[in-house]
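Protein data:
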Amino acid sequence: MRHLRRGSQLATVAALSLALAACGDEGNGQGNGQGRGIAETYDLENQQLSERGGGDTTRLTVGSKDFAEQEILGHITLLALQEAGAEVVDDTGLGSTEDVRAALVSEQIDMYWEYTGTGALIHLAQADPPSDPQALYDKLSQLDLQRNDIEWLAPSPADNTYAIAARAELYQEDSDAYDEELAGVTRLSDLGSLVEQSPDKATVCVGPEFSQRADGLPGLEEHYGFELPEANVFVLPDPTVYGAVDAGQKCNFGSVFATSGYIPELDLELVEDDENFFAAYNPSLTMRAETLDRYPDLKPLFEDITERLDTDTLRRLDAAVLVDQRSAEDVAEEWLQEQGLID
């Protein structure tokens, strides 16, 4: 087990030189490493990545937001860098979206995973981002580099978009919880009809950020043309929204993340976003341009990892933390071992 202690140095950071497998290598053929482990493919042992303070102190600091999926992604990054020979500093679980982005811009951290929809709508204030995920990424990565010198590496195929969920029993006629009106809400446009016809049933639990963000509840209401009664909206910590929806006592609907492990565990139904309000939220490792310019081999290292992270994979890893109560570090390490990237 590798122990990564916050703020501690674990090895000497050094050169980042790529030794990609030659064409025709045997292995699973997945990713740039052609089935080879990180230690066999990359070497970060002889070149400083960044300097903190004075003297010869060198560190690569990885941050994340303070929820399970982000901490898993952060630990995947830490372990991959350490396997390649880097000195790593763990600053995962740093805080909110704004906190972690500010930490990156101010050089408190060197990298963290951000979501393409968040980047476009929140960090760049794009009111109408492209609905196509690739077009969204292309525009976002170009604008953020031009305006803020922030690089976005290739995005994961996983889509951690926002969604509205309800417990499955509402839609099952043989269930005690079945309600004909609630069962009629299969699309978000139906939620607007429910607000008009039976506002007392249009109860929604939402996370703190979702309650305020343009890509959250305010934008959702504006886009679909309805307004929930203030008394019907309950702002809860994100992890507790899932249980509240499943219980059905406080709220019939709730804001969720599409890659959450709670969705299959609690058998929640996702309400269709029939007018495509929610943007794509593909995870992408972000860093300052100076870091990538100086160490371009960071790009293929994480492209190899990123392309393996689809929606089902993130749900499974997320469930291991949220449901099975395992540590994000253990889950990240086990996944990297399964992929043959670390020993």
The longest helix spans residues 68-83. The first strand starts at residue 17 and ends at 18.
